[in-house]
Prior knowledge:
There is one protein chain. The protein starts with a helix and ends with a helix. It has a single domain (13-100), classed as Cytochrome c-like domain (Cytochrome Bc1 Complex, Chain D, domain 2), CATH 1.10.760.10. 44% of the residues lie in helices and 0% in strands. The model has no long low-confidence stretch (mean pLDDT 88). It has five helices and no strands. The structure holds heme C (HEC). The site of heme C has 21 residues, from helix 3 and helix 4.
Amino acid sequence: MPGYQPSLQVNNPGSDTLARGFTLYKDNCSMCHAADLRGELSAPGVPVRDLTRFKKYKFGSTDQAIYRSIVYGIPKTAMGNFQSSLKPQQVWDIINYMKSKRTD
Length: 104
Ligand code: HEC
């Protein structure tokens, strides 16, 4: 089949970034945003929204906006910043994982 051999040389980066993102999310985010991203909190009374609903994001849901929310945090809320604890690649892995769970 035309293109079959060359196609074997390229890799879809998707599954790796999602697998890494899943683990990073579980370790760094799920305690507040819940394993399913829907924000059933272990810390009661903290207003966390459903992160599967991108259209409801208060601080934007473009790649850059989510990156900003994670790396710099949201001042005066429980959402701290991950500037020193996550590398840029790790932040992108988490963002790709979040996008894979998007419902709107
Ligand atoms: C200590 C609890 C806590 C942890 C840990 C935490 N968050 Fe948050 N996060 C919050 C809270 C609370 C808000 C909502 C702030 C507000 O608007 O009141 C929030 C908001 C956000 C937003 C903005 C949503 C919007 O409406 O724009 C994003 C994106 C987000 N968090 C992603 C993450 C990711 C990814 C991680 C892990 C790297 C993480 N958070 C870790 C508590 C947390």
